[in-house]
Design brief:
By secondary structure, the protein is mainly alpha-helical. The protein is built from six helices and two strands; from the N terminus they run H-H-E-E-H-H-H-H. The chain has helices at about 10-20, 20-35, 75-90, 95-100, 105-110, 120-140, and strands at about 55-60, 70-75. The mean pLDDT is about 90.
Length: about 140
């Protein structure tokens, strides 16, 4: 099973193959270990996601075709795995497409909220909120 996830559909399929939550959390940790690190210069207050127990930094990288690549990192492997899930949902889309996605519904397909601690769940939704804030700002800035 590949730890390079391209879409939320692929991630849902992989979760179903794994079956139990111990294996799924192991898979999330593996995804986190594969996440490319964010440059030290980008691990700054401007990119910090507040509301997460772990330190999380997230930034948008606009592409020439109007799509947005999301770059993010954390100091905790499980959170890095959750970042990989967010990237599967949001990265590579336009600001408008990002804003049209119901993150709660998409993440609900994995049933993560029922299996995360309250602090991890709050952190995950803080990351979703930050993605939406950045997408709204990017959409406003687009002529």
């Amino acid at each position: 099973m590949s730890t390079t996830v391209q879409s939320i559909d692929e991630l849902v399929e992989n979760f179903e193959l794994l079956g139990d939550w111990e294996s799924r959390f192991g898979y999330l940790i593996d995804l986190g270990k594969e996440l490319p690190p964010l440059a030290a210069a980008d691990q700054c207050e401007e990119n910090r996601v507040h509301g997460c127990q772990a330190q999380v930094w997230l930034k948008f990288v606009p592409e020439s075709d109007g799509r947005i690549t999301i770059a993010a990192d954390s100091d905790a492997f499980i959170v890095k795995g959750l970042i990989s899930v967010l990237l599967a949902v949001y990265s590579g889309k336009t600001a408008g497409e990002i804003l049209a996605i119901d993150g709660e519904v998409e993440l609900g397909r994995l049933d993560l909220a029922a299996h995360l601690s309250p602090t991890r769940k709050n952190g995950l939704f803080a990351m979703v909120q930050r993605v939406r804030e950045l997408a709204a700002a990017a959409q406003e800035a687009t002529p």
